[in-house]
Design goal:
Elements: H1 27-50, H2 57-76, H3 84-115
Helix pairs in contact: 1-2
Length: 119
């Protein structure tokens, strides 16, 4: 009685494809990422409440938010260990968002130049 368990039709052993398997991130790394996110949130609040940056306040806040978003996407959403195609999709979304911010800032600063007041 012949059995074909563990072999394909050609008699070769089957090799499972683990390329699409889930990557398990160690709990210690996730804890470090969480603490970094909390620290960046505290930095955002301290910067907004106690440090007067003037016109740089918004770009600094967006920069901190970008770092936090990249950390969440990379580790908690698993994008760091995902396929290149998904990374390209996320990068395209960020480029679209950057264009939106750029044109909004361009519009805002063109109005500021007309009224001669920054805030």
């Amino acid at each position: 009685m012949a059995s074909n368990h563990g072999h394909s039709a050609g008699g070769q052993p089957q090799v499972e494809n683990y390329a699409n398997a889930h990557h398990i991130v160690p709990a210690a790394l996730l804890t470090k990422i969480l603490l970094a996110l909390v620290a960046l949130t505290v930095l955002t609040v301290v910067t907004a409440k106690f440090v007067h940056l003037g016109a740089l306040a918004v770009p600094v806040a967006f920069g901190i938010a970008l770092v936090k978003a990249l950390m969440v996407m990379g580790y908690f959403m698993g994008l760091k260990y995902d396929t290149k195609g998904n990374r390209i999709i996320f990068a395209t979304g960020f480029m679209g968002l950057a264009l939106l911010f750029f044109f909004c800032a361009l519009d805002t600063f063109s109005r500021v130049l007309q009224s001669n007041t920054l805030f």
